[in-house]
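Fill in residues.
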C-alpha cells in the first residue's frame, strides 16, 4: 500500500506526493487515494484534472512548450507547433514512446516581445522561433538526450 494515500490532510498535497513518486498520476493511484480517504473518485479525479500541475499520463524527460498566446499565435506559433510535432512524431499533449519528449502548447510564457516563443524544460527559452529553427532544436535536443544516456 502507498503511504501517501491515507493522509487526511488537504487533497492537493497528497496528489503532489503521489505525482512525485510516479512522475504522473496513474489511475490506480487516484483510485487508492479516493478509497483510503473515503472520498468519491470523481472528487479526486476532478481536482487532478482541474490543476495544470497534475498529469494523468507519463511525461517525457524534456517538456517542450510552444507559446500560443495572442502575440505568439499571430507571429506563427501554429507553424512552430506543427514543426515540433512533425519532428518529434507526436501530437500536442503527447509523449514520445521513449519518454524523452512531451509536446505542449501553453497560453503564455511572458515573453511576448520574443514571439513566437518556445520553452524547453524549465531553463531554456527560445525566442523568435521559426519552423526551421524548431526542427534544428529537436535534433539538438535528441543529440543531448543521447549524450546524457
Amino acid at each position: 500500500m502507498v503511504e501517501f494515500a491515507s493522509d487526511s490532510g488537504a487533497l492537493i498535497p497528497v496528489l503532489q506526493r503521489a505525482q512525485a513518486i510516479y512522475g504522473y498520476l496513474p489511475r490506480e493511484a487516484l483510485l487508492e487515494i479516493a478509497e483510503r480517504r473515503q472520498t468519491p473518485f470523481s472528487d479526486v479525479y476532478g481536482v487532478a484534472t482541474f490543476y495544470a500541475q497534475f498529469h494523468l499520463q507519463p511525461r517525457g524527460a524534456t517538456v517542450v512548450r510552444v507559446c500560443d498566446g495572442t502575440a505568439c499565435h499571430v507571429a506563427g506559433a501554429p507553424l512552430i507547433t506543427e514543426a515540433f510535432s512533425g519532428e518529434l512524431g507526436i501530437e500536442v499533449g503527447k509523449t514520445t514512446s521513449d519518454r524523452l519528449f512531451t509536446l505542449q502548447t501553453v497560453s503564455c510564457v511572458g515573453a511576448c516581445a520574443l514571439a513566437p516563443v518556445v520553452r524547453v524544460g524549465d531553463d531554456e527559452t527560445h525566442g523568435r522561433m521559426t519552423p526551421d529553427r524548431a526542427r534544428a532544436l529537436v535534433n539538438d535536443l535528441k543529440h543531448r538526450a543521447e549524450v546524457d544516456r
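Residues 3-50 form one domain.
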